Structures
1.
Amino acid sequence: MDPVANPYRPGAGRRPPILAGREPLLAGFEVVQRRAEERGEGERGWVLNGLRGVGKTVLLTEMLDRASRAGWIAAKAEAGTEPLPLTLSRSLVRAMRTATGRHPERRLKRLLGVFKAFSLKVEPSGAVSLGVDVDPIAGIADTGRFADDLASLFEVLGETARALGTGVLVLVDELQEAAASELAAINVAVHNLGQADPPLPLAFVGAGLPSLPAQLAEATSYAERLYDYRPVGLLDEAASRDALVLPSRQLDVDWDDEALSLALETARGYPYFLQAVGKHVWDNARRSPIDPDDVRLGLIEAQREVDDGLYRSRWERATPAQRDLMRALADLAGDTTASISEIAAALGKTKTSHISVARNELIKKGLVYAPDRGLLAFTVPGMHDFIARQP
Ligand SMILES: Nc1ncnc2c1ncn2[C@@H]1O[C@H](COP(=O)(O)OP(=O)(O)O)[C@@H](O)[C@H]1O
Ligand SMILES: [Mg+2]
C-alpha cells in the first residue's frame, strides 16, 4: 500500500490516528473541564501511571489540546532534563502568552505580575519574556522556596481562571524523573489548591512510570489521598482492533479476519507495538483487504523496529552483571513481577543484598522498577521476549 498514505505512527509521543480505548479517561477529563468552566471548581490532581509505550504522553497532549481549544491557560512540561522549577516556568510562559491574546489584559495583570516575580526567582537572567510589559509583583510567589512559591502561583492562577470563567491545566510528563523535593513541592501546591472552598479550578496532571505513586507518597505522606490515580495500561481486544482497523478503514483499506487476528496476537494490546505493526503491515500489503501474508512480512519488520527503538538500547546500556539480573527477571517474571529473593536465588546468591547494586543501577537507568517492596518488573512490556532472543 502507498507508504505516503500510511496512517500509523509508531514512536515516542507520536499521536496515533485513533486514540483507542481511552474514552473513559477522556470522559473523566471532560467532567473536570466542565466543572471548572460552569462552577469555577477544581478537582483532585490526576496521576497517569504506566509502562513505557502505553500512551501516557499522547494522552497528555490530547488534554493539552482540548484545554487550549477551550481557552484555558494550559501548560505542558517534561521533568528530567532540567530542574523542574525552570521547566515549569518556561512552559507556563508559553501558556501565559497565549492567554494574553485571549483575555483582556487588565484582568490578567495580577497574574502576570506574580508570574513574572516567580519566574525571575527561577531564572534570574530574566530570559523569560511574556510578550507584554508588566512589572513583577513582589511578595507573593518569590520567596525562593519552590514549594511555597509554586503554591502561591497555583493559587493566583486558579483565582484568575475562576474570575475569567475558565480553567488552568498544568501537565508534567516523566514526573518520575523529578527530585523528591520537587515532587514534595508539587504535592504542597496541589494540596493547597484543594483547601480553598470551593477548590480552585487548576487541574494538575502528572504522568510517569508505575513507580510514580510510591515516589509521590514518599515525598509527602498525604499524597495517597491527594491524587486521582489513573493507571494507563495495555488496550483490550476491542480497543486494539479499533487501533488497527479504524485508521485504514478511513482510507478504504480493510483487514481480513485471519490477518487481523495474527496482528492482534503479536501486538498483545501494547499501543506502541500496535502502531509499529500497523505501519509495517501497511507498507508490505499489496491490496485491500490486507491478508495474512502481508501481516507475516510486516511483523518481521515491526519486530525489528520495536527491538531497535525500544529494547536494544536498554539492553546495551546494561553491564554484564545487570544483564544477568535482567535475564533472571525475564525467566521468572515475563511481563509480570518477581521477588528480589527469587531473583537472587536464581543467580546463585545467598543474600538479596548481593544483587542490590545491580538492582539499584537498573532502576536508576529506568530499565526496571519496584512495583512494591521487594518486587521487581520491567518498565517496558515484552522486554523478556527480547532478552530470550539475545545470545
Ligand atoms: N490509545 C492509543 N491507541 C493507539 N495507539 C496509541 C494509543 N496510545 C498511544 N499509542 C501509540 O503508542 C506509542 C507510544 O505512545 P506514548 O504516548 O509515547 O507512550 P508513553 O508516553 O506511555 O511512553 C505511539 O506510537 C502512539 O501513537
Ligand atoms: Mg511518554
2.
Amino acid sequence: MKEISPEIFYVGVDDYETDLFESMWPLPEGVSYNAYIVKGKEKVAAIDTVKIPFVEEYLEKVEKVTSFDKIDYIILNHMEPDHTGSLLKLLEKAPQAKIYCSKKAVAMVKSLFNLEENVHGVEEAEELDLGDKKLIFYMDPLVHWPETMVTYEAESKTLFSSDAFGSFKGLKEGITDEEVDYHGYIDETIRYFSNIVSKYTKYVKKALDKLLPIEIKIIAPAHGLIWKKDVKHIVSLYQQLADMQGEKSILVLWGSMYGNTKLVIDAVVEGIEEAGLKVTILDVARDHLSYQIKETAKNQGIILGFPTYDGEEFPPVSFYLDMMRRKNIRNRIVGFFGSSLWSGRALKKAADKLKTLDWQIVEPLLEFRGKPAKELLSQAKELGKQVAQKVKEL
Ligand SMILES: Cc1cc2nc3c(=O)[nH]c(=O)nc-3n(C[C@H](O)[C@H](O)[C@H](O)COP(=O)(O)O)c2cc1C
Ligand SMILES: [Fe+2]
Ligand SMILES: [Fe+2]
C-alpha cells in the first residue's frame, strides 16, 4: 500500500505465480494487477480490484487505507477478471458500495456476478464528486474490451487508464517511474501492447485523441509502472505503437527442419549489419510467439526464413502470420528466404498473406532447392542489405 498522490493509494498486487497471462503469454518477470483507493473529503472510491487468487493480500492493503464501511463507490474500468476478480469479496466487506461502470459493462456485471442492484452505468464524461476530489469517466471502447472506460481524477490530474499504457512485469522494485528506471519496463510495455491491445489500434488512436488534450500529471494503469515523472515518454511510446511505427532495426525470424534454410542466416545478417542496422534473431519454432509478436511491433524491417512444408509455409510460420493478422501488425518492410525440394511456393503464399496488412514485400523472394549455393548466399546478403536500406529510407 503506497500513496501515489495525496489521498490516492496503490493497493494492487504482484503476480509471480501465473505462468501464462490469458493462458498464452509468458510472464518471466510476473505481472501486477493495479488497484487504487481514492479518498475524497466526503466520499471514498475503490478503482478496480485484482485477480481472485490475490484477494486476501488486496483486502489487507485496502483495510490499511480505509475501513470497508467507508467505501462509497467501486469503479470498474474494465470487466476482464484480472481486474474484477475480487469484486464479490470486496462487496462482502463493503455491501453499501455502489458499483460504477460503463453502460456496456452493466450486462457483463450481471453475466459475471449476477449483480443488478446498486450498479450504475455511467455516461461519457459523467462526473462523480468525492468532496475535494472528482472522478470523471471517459469511454475507451476496445482498449481492451468493448466495455472499457478510463477514470480521471481532476484534482490530482490522475488518469486511471485501465489496460492502456500498461505492461507486463511485477512491481517489486517500485511502483512508479520515480522509484525505478522505466527503461527496464519498455520492452514489457511493447510486449503487452502488441500481444494484448494492438488488434484495436484504431481505438487506441481514438482514445489518445480524446484523452491527450486533458492535462494529465499521473498515468495509473491497471498493469505495470505508474507514470509520474516521464508521462510524456509513455504517451509518445504509445503514439508510436498505435501508429505502427517500429524502430529502424531488423528482426530475422527463421525456422528450419534440416538446417538448409538455417545456412542462409549469417549472410542475411551480414547484409543488414553492413547497412548499419541492428538485428534481432528469433527461432520461430522455439522462441515464444509472444516475443515474435513483440519484436515485430518493435522492428520496422522483418526478414522471414523458412522451408516449404506440405506445399505451404513451415507450420510455426502459419501461426505467426495468422497472429500478425489477428493482432493487426501493419506496415512492415519484409524479405523472405527459404529452402524447398520439389515445387516450393511457400514464400509466395506467405507474402500474399502479409500484403493484406500493407507489408511491403522486398523482391526477389529467395526460394531455393535443397542446400543454398554460393550464389544464393550472396543474394541473401544483398536481401539483408536491401531490407535494411528501405527501412533506413523511411
Ligand atoms: C514434412 C515435410 C513436408 C515437406 N513439404 C514440402 C512441399 O510441400 N514442397 C516442397 O517443395 N518441399 C517440401 N518439403 C521439403 C523441404 O522443403 C526441404 O527438405 C527443405 O530443404 C527443408 O529445409 P530445411 O532444411 O531448412 O528444413 C517437405 C519436407 C518435410 C520434412
Ligand atoms: Fe484486459
Ligand atoms: Fe488487464
